[in-house]
Amino acid sequence: MSTESKAHPATGSFFAASASYFFWGLFPLFWHLLAKIDATELIAHRVVWSLLFLLGVMAAQQRLLELGHACRERQNLRVHAASGALLTVNWLVYVWGVNNGHVIECSLGYFLVPLINVALGRWLLHERLRKAQLVAIVVAAFGVALMVWRVGRFPWIALTLAVTFGFYGLLRKRSNLGPLVGLTLETLLLAPFAAGYLFWRFAHGTGALGRVDAATTGLILSCGVVTAVPLLLFAKGARGLRMITLGLLQYIAPTCQFLLGWLLYNEALGGARMGAFLLIWVGLAIYSVDAGLAARAAR
Description:
Layout: H1 11-25, H2 27-32, H3 39-60, H4 64-71, H5 74-99, H6 103-123, H7 131-151, H8 156-173, H9 179-203, H10 214-221, H11 223-240, H12 243-249, H13 252-264, H14 270-298
Helix pairs in contact: 1-11, 1-13, 3-5, 3-9, 3-11, 5-8, 5-9, 6-7, 6-8, 6-13, 6-14, 7-14
């Protein structure tokens, strides 16, 4: 079933999507355990081990031939090379931010993603904006401007995460491939560069594998599973939920990250940053209510 049942929301899809966002929200806990390892090396490991895991999943589903067909289409290669590059930048900035004490700013970036998506739809896809959507974007923009003005530092981490993930979503929207095949193709295109970088670090005596303890080695090797499992759960959830439900559930991840940064890692919140977050949350509330009303009207 592609939509939720009126009597019962698609329970399995709902819990799968919720679990994926919850796992993404807890990612800072995992990356903090690897804080001593260079962020670029961690992303390279993430790509290599994710590819092995995804190929295993595709082999188990007997879909490797489908991946082969996808590789022969130039349009697929262009789109997914670009989306893979954006995803790599997003991952790199996120891991660096988490491991350098910017968990709250990372959460801000993912709070901004829905509003970035609306803006991209308006100015790149020429979609019409409802008045409430325009108000939501303006309110959130004031929040970002307040952070810049009062904190005195351009929130480059948050905006990089929001913009790269927003454009990533735009490219995936234009892709003809499903979630699993598309993600595997992206990872396959990135893997030669990631593997080459890891071999180079190992040859120069700076790579982590073989030079860290067994527990850290196990964490590095688990990067693929940690990356791919939430994505597969998300794919399952996306098939059975309405977009409005999926859109509202996505706030689970940045909310968890915000709470971790504030309550566990004791990152400073401050009046200016709190005011900026409140404006962004107001913008998100306006966006969410408008989306819910529009979905109800469409039904």
